[in-house]
């Protein structure tokens, strides 16, 4: 299988006043298409920072990110936005739904930013995902009116609406009770298993990580295993 | 389509969540548009009123007046300066193409008494040709005739308004006597109302007409403040004007008198009006700018309240221009709301004012006010929208 993501000697540095803080130090990772992996490490180790760089939300201070062999540093901001839209589906710990939009609208939101004509009807697809994730009847509810587990399922549906190749989940179970958390994990595993999506789950929970085939350990901004 | 409907929906949801803020912000634009549209409407109405008054006079008129043209239109020339006499009137009469010539003596601010009532007005003394020049139409009795002048008859033609004020009703007035500064005049006729008035300007219905001969008691010099003439046709106006000028230049120098036609007077009045109106509208437009600044302020607040939302949208693939449009559309909507309500209110006020004051809103005012409010929405919305669009996706989504 081909490499879908290549993180090549990536450094991320912040200036904290006069002090240089290195959040990521010389990270090198290869992710193959269809892989299910976990990024684990203690709080503050740089997991989210790495995920944001892989998900094209952030740029490395040094080093390069290749998506399907293409060097992202040569892309314009518009092209990167479009790639985020089509290629990546994000799932966040805090769900990050837009509260004034309904569940259906939240799920459809990425499709309004599509730059090319979709060969399917996003509304139909959204309704299908609502059914599949057990959200029937909540289409016109608002995010703050449903449970955390349901909100995270909405977020996953939203991540899937554009048929992305890559799903990035940052502590997707972090704000959920263990039962809802397990359901979400099951869903993510299913996406990898049945739909051959590449899934990366960021977590500090070793139990969650055990469910994946590959574990990337980071500590203090460095990959340790 | 879906894209726009999402953006609009998002804007409206935001407005409805912040109703008070939305209304207050639009209010700035509302007041601006209201004052601009109202001033334009009043200006237009006034202009139309004046040109209507001119139209109610006869056509192809030429005025010979003291003073140079500039002074004439400002009214200064009518005071002081030269007065015309019968020799001048003869000179004008001799000019070919000059159909009617009416020498005019006027005495403003006269007190008329009859029946124990009194009323102020303006005495106009002339020949019977004034009927043509001022386009007087008969309502009751008769207008001035040649014989009134010949016989030095103390006869007077008044307006329906004055008849009603002095004699309670028009019919009663005929044959009755009006006293003006100790002189008695017999009412022989009532001319049809010219309308208008009530504007502080000259009210055509306050005019009363007597023959020149009858007015010699007030006009002891037997001189006239103006000569009104009428050209036989429109094409002759310029030539007749030139000939009058040439002829009068033999007695007076160029600065002492002027010969103008209606179009020229109208042109000058319009010019003065346009300047005045532009200045007033420009002052009112300042409130539009203030309203625009209000919108800019609120949009900055809105942007900083929604940084997280901006981050989410960027994470989902919105380009920075999508964010720019989103906020720009919101500010334009805010501004247009204000514009529409301002226009509506202006309509209401103009409607109520109509009976007291000539005012009307033309299509240009509508297009201009809506256009200007959209432009204000864009101009003052673009800075906050740009700020939103320029946020880095990662900073926005990590924003607490
Ligand atoms: N914009 C920033 N400016 C300065 N420091 C930052 C910035 N973003 C992240 N950091 C720092 O980088 C380090 C890594 O942050 P990151 O969010 O990647 O950690 P994490 O592994 O995801 O932790 P957690 O498990 O708590 O989410 C932290 O020490 C954080 O304070
Ligand atoms: Mg994190």
UniProtKB/TrEMBL annotation, chain A:
GO CC term (a single one): membrane protein complex
SUPFAM superfamilies: P-loop containing nucleoside triphosphate hydrolases (SSF52540)
Species, as recorded: Candidatus Roizmanbacteria bacterium RIFOXYD1_FULL_38_12
Family of this protein: Belongs to the ABC transporter superfamily.
PANTHER family in the cross-refs: ALPHA-D-RIBOSE 1-METHYLPHOSPHONATE 5-TRIPHOSPHATE SYNTHASE SUBUNIT PHNL, LIPOPROTEIN-RELEASING SYSTEM ATP-BINDING PROTEIN LOLD
Name of protein: ABC transporter ATP-binding protein
PROSITE patterns: ABC_TRANSPORTER_1 (PS00211), ABC_TRANSPORTER_2 (PS50893)
Molecular function in Gene Ontology: ATP binding; ATP hydrolysis activity; transmembrane transporter activity
Keywords: ATP-binding, Nucleotide-binding, Transport
InterPro entries in the cross-refs: AAA+_ATPase, ABC_transporter-like_ATP-bd, ABC_transporter-like_CS, MacB-like_ATP-bd, P-loop_NTPase
Domain of life: Bacteria
Domain ABC transporter: 5-224
From TrEMBL, chain B:
GO CC aspect terms: plasma membrane
ABC3 transporter permease C-terminal domain sequence ranges: 282-393
Residues making up the signal peptide according to the UniProt record: none
The organism's place on the tree of life at top rank: Bacteria
Entry's transmembrane regions: 21-46, 279-303, 324-353, 359-383
Keyword Lyase among record annotations: no
Location of the protein in the cell: Cell membrane
Span of domain MacB-like periplasmic core: 22-246
GO-annotated molecular function: transmembrane transporter activity
UniProt membrane topology term: Multi-pass membrane protein
Keywords for the protein's UniProt record, in alphabetical order: Cell membrane, Membrane, Transmembrane, Transmembrane helix
Family note: Belongs to the ABC-4 integral membrane protein family.
Name of the protein: Multidrug ABC transporter substrate-binding protein
Lineage, top ranks: Bacteria, Candidatus Roizmaniibacteriota
């Amino acid at each position: 299988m081909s490499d879908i993501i290549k993180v090549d000697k990536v450094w991320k540095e912040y200036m904290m006043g006069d002090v240089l803080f290195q959040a990521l130090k010389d990270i090198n990772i290869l992710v193959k298409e269809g892989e299910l992996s976990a990024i684990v490490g203690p709080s503050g180790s740089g997991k989210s920072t790495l995920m944001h760089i892989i998900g094209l939300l952030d740029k490395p201070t040094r080093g390069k990110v290749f998506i399907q062999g293409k060097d992202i540093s040569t892309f314009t901001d518009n092209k990167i936005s479009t790639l985020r839209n089509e290629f990546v589906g994000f799932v966040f710990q805090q769900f990050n739904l837009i509260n004034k939009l309904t569940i259906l609208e939240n799920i459809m939101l990425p499709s309004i930013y599509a730059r090319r004509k979709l060969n399917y009807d996003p509304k139909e697809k959204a309704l299908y995902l609502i059914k599949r994730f057990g959200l029937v009847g909540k289409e016109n509810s608002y995010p703050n009116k449903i449970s955390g587990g349901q909100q995270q399922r909405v977020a996953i549906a939203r991540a899937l609406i554009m048929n992305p190749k890559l799903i990035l989940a940052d502590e997707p179970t972090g704000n959920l009770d263990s039962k809802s958390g397990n359901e979400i994990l099951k869903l993510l595993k299913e996406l990898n298993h049945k739909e051959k999506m590449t899934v990366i789950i960021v977590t500090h929970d070793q139990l969650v990580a055990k469910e994946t085939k590959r574990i990337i350990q980071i500590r203090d901004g460095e990959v340790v295993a | 389509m879906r894209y726009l409907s999402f953006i609009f929906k998002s804007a409206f949801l935001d407005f409805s969540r912040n109703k008070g803020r939305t209304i207050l912000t639009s209010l700035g634009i509302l007041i601006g548009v209201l004052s601009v549209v109202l001033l334009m409407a009043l200006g237009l109405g006034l202009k139309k009123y004046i040109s209507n008054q001119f139209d109610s006079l006869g056509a192809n008129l030429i005025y010979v007046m003291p003073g140079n043209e500039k002074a004439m239109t400002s009214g200064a020339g009518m005071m002081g300066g030269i007065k015309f006499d019968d020799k001048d009137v003869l000179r004008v009469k001799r000019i070919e193409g000059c159909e009617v010539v009416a020498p005019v003596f006027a005495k403003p601010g006269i007190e008329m008494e009859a029946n124990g009532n009194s009323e102020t007005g303006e005495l106009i003394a002339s020949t019977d040709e004034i009927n043509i020049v001022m386009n007087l139409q008969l309502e009751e009795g008769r207008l001035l005739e040649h014989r009134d002048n010949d016989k030095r008859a103390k006869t007077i033609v008044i307006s329906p308004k004055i008849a009603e004020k002095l004699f309670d009703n028009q019919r009663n007035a005929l044959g009755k006597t009006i006293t003006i500064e100790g002189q008695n005049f017999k009412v022989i006729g009532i001319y049809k109302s010219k309308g208008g008035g009530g504007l502080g300007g000259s009210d055509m219905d306050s005019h009363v007409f007597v023959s020149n001969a009858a007015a010699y008691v007030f006009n002891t010099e037997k001189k006239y403040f103006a000569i009104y003439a009428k050209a036989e046709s429109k094409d002759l106006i310029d030539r007749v004007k030139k000939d009058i000028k040439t002829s009068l230049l033999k007695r007076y120098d160029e600065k002492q008198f002027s010969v103008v036609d209606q179009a020229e007077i109208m042109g000058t009045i319009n010019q003065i009006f346009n300047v005045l109106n532009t200045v007033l509208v420009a002052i009112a437009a300042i409130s539009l700018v203030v309203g625009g600044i209000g919108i800019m302020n609120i949009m900055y607040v809105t942007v900083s309240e929604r940084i997280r939302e901006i981050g989410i949208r960027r994470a989902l693939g919105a380009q920075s221009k999508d964010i720019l449009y989103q906020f720009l559309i919101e500010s334009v909507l805010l501004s247009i709301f204000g514009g529409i309500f301002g226009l509506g209110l202006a309509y209401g006020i103009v409607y109520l004012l109509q009976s007291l004051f000539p005012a009307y809103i033309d299509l240009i005012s509508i297009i201009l006010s809506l256009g200007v409010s959209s432009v204000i929405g864009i101009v003052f919305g673009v800075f906050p929208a740009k700020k939103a669009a320029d946020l880095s996706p990662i900073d926005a989504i990590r924003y607490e």
